[in-house]
Write a structure and sequence with these properties.
- The longest helix is centred in the N-terminal third of the chain and has 44 residues, at 2-45.
- The protein has helices spanning 2-45, 54-67.
- Helices cover 74% and strands 0% of the residues.
């Protein structure tokens, strides 16, 4: 019985190793999607930089300040 438990434990560990590359591939795809979404978000607030509306201008200033540090972040830094 002990031998069977050891074999089962070894088998379970080997299954985790087989599925790991799939997880890494998924993470890369999620990173690409996040990067595209962030780029779209940053682009979507640009028109409000020159708005005459005071509330929109204030909102733009706050959002631009919040996102300014993300413009220069590369994948290796995340």
């Amino acid at each position: 019985m002990s031998s069977l438990r050891q074999t089962l434990a070894h088998y379970n560990r080997s299954q985790e190793q087989v599925t790991q590359p799939t997880s890494a591939d998924n993470l890369a795809q999620f990173d690409d999607r996040r990067d595209a979404d962030l780029k779209a978000l940053l682009s979507s607030i640009k028109p409000f930089a020159e708005t005459p509306d005071a509330e929109e201008s204030k909102a733009y200033t706050q959002l631009a300040s919040l996102f300014k540090d993300y413009r220069t972040v590369s994948r290796s830094q995340l």
